[in-house]
Amino acid sequence: MTQNPANQAVPHHVAIVMDGNGRWATRRFLPRVAGHKQGVDSLRRCVKACAARGVKVLTVFAFSSENWNRPADEVSGLMDLLAMAVGREVPQLKADGVRLHFVGERRGLSEKVAAGLTQAEAATAQNDRLILNVCFNYGGRWDIAQAAAALAARGEPITELALDRAMALAHVPDPDLMIRTGGEQRISNFLLWQISYSEL
Ligand code: IPE
Ligand code: IPE
Ligand code: MG
Q: How far apart (Å, rounded) are the C-alpha atoms in residues 87 and 196?
């Protein structure tokens, strides 16, 4: 865990399972996708608040490896929302000093969506105020398996340190705080390796 020397009370790295979108919408007699849209608005406010308070890394769970099992129209709604949000938010994120990383299996995504993610990462690569990791088509088990496979392919011994360095979140220290909105108390295959010592 890396401490924030300026303010010890502020966590360096916050991780959030962004849950409860569907229930939020259902309570208002709206389609589930309206809840996901509201989720993007909440995330925008959350990013601003983290940057203002001196949080250095924010990692959010936006789409899990298991979320492919949802109805096809919800999955395509989420893909469209990702593509739209990325296109629309990048200029402001860039202006606010936010560096974007998309974490997860890119191969499952359409070429167009994947290209948008790569572009957004490149456009914000010079920023260092806040790192925003968006976990999309991500699973904690996927990450451990892909890291082990990468080491095996290079013929490297599989040690804790080597695995840690091969993980998709190797560019940031482990989360200090993990939050799940929506009221459930489940990890749901989020950062399995990295939350060993995170406060929940
Ligand atoms: C989280 O909200 C967003 C994604 C998983 C994409 P949900 O869609 O899981 O909302 P609830 O849990 O059904 O309320
Ligand atoms: C976890 O929420 C995944 C994301 C927030 C992206 P889910 O709603 O998919 O998890 P479960 O089904 O409640 O475990
Ligand atoms: Mg949910």
A: 34
Looking at ligand 2, which residue's alpha carbon is closest to its atom 10?
188
Q: Distance between CA atoms of 26 and 189, rounded to whole angstroms?
A: 25
CA of residue 24 to ligand 1 center, whole Å: 9
Q: Which residues are catalytic?
A: 19, 67
Residue 17 C-alpha to ligand 2 middle, in angstroms? Answer: 7
pLDDT at 2 over 70: no
User: Against a cut of 0.85, is the pTM above it?
Assistant: yes
Q: Is the CB of 20 under 6 A from ligand 1?
A: yes
Judged by its nearest atom, the ligand closest to the C-alpha of residue 79 is: 1
Q: Are 177 and 198 in contact (CB under 8 A)?
A: yes
Return the amino acid letter for 116.
G
Structure confidence at residue 37 as a pLDDT band (50, 70, 90): very high
Which helix (H) or strand (E) element contains residue 120?
helix 111-123
Contacts of 83 (CB under 8 A, 6+ apart): 112, 113, 116
DSSP code string of 175-197? PSEEEETTS----TTSSTTTTTT
pLDDT over 50 (residue 75): yes
